[in-house]
Design goal:
Distance between the termini of chain B: 32 Å
Radius of gyration of chain A: 13 Å
Largest sheet of chain A: 6 strands, mixed
Largest sheet of chain B: 7 strands, mixed
Number of strands of chain B: 11
Shape of chain B: globular
Strand content of chain A: over 45%
Helix content of chain A: under 10%
Number of strands of chain A: 11
Strand content of chain B: over 45%
Oligomer: heterodimer
Chain lengths: ~110, ~120
């Protein structure tokens, strides 16, 4: 089983829609979690950190479910600029494990 | 944003060439990392340096040789590479890997093509 698994998508949504996707992780002892955003041919950039049950930052909400070992990311009121690949990242023993990413495309 | 810079941004090399990738961080961090990102694959951690000491070598072939002269600079020396080494090589830095709240910041990457 991969350490971090994500639905690759793509999720194609209209502007203004809500989109949500999950990430599962295999190590129940994982300590912290992150969502990074990566635009095409660019570097990953931190979107949100998740240390407890969840985090909210504007239109973005991350939820952590330790019992089922998954993290979710919800984007409300999608903008064209939200089109990107979203990387789920898990901190295991102070090393980061990355998922392969979920691609979101927001259309006008 | 100029927190973590990488040069060159693009590199094409033959299998017999020797080249080096450079990374510099201006964030006052203590740890630096090299990652490899191949198409449609997750980022793969290659090396970790914490306070200039290598703390992680993730079974990377010896044709990749890292060097960390100080906490702000990190190099990746390349020699006798293979075409399958073509990828985006990302450098990152963070304040303290021992903290669960530690956050890594990435440079723009070097897109490497091996012919």
């Amino acid at each position: 089983r991969k350490e971090v698994e994500q639905d690759p998508g793509p999720f194609n949504v209209p502007e203004g829609a809500t989109v949500a996707f999950n990430c599962t992780y295999s190590n129940s002892a994982s300590q912290s979690f992150f969502w990074y955003r990566q635009d095409c041919r660019k570097e990953p950039k931190l979107l949100m950190s998740v240390y407890s049950s969840g985090n909210e930052d504007g239109r973005f909400t991350a939820q952590l479910n330790r019992a089922s070992q998954y993290i979710s990311l919800l984007i409300r009121d999608s903008k064209l600029s939200d089109s990107a690949t979203y990387l789920c990242v898990v901190n295991n023993d102070y090393k980061l494990s990355f998922g392969a990413g979920t691609t979101v495309t927001v259309r006008a | 944003e100029t927190g973590v810079t990488q040069t060159p941004r693009h590199l094409v090399m033959g299998m017999t060439n020797k080249k080096s990738l450079k990374c510099e961080q201006h964030l006052g961090h203590n740890a630096m990392y090299w990652y490899k990102q191949s198409a449609k694959k997750p980022l793969e951690l290659m090396f970790v340096y914490n306070f200039k000491e290598q703390t992680e070598n993730n079974s990377v072939p010896s044709r990749f040789s890292p060097e960390c002269p100080n906490s702000s600079h990190l190099f990746l020396h390349l020699h006798t590479l293979q075409p399958e080494d073509s990828a985006l090589y990302l450098c990152a830095s963070s304040q303290a890997p021992s903290l669960k709240t530690d956050t890594q910041y990435f440079g723009p990457g070097t897109r490497l093509t091996v012919l």
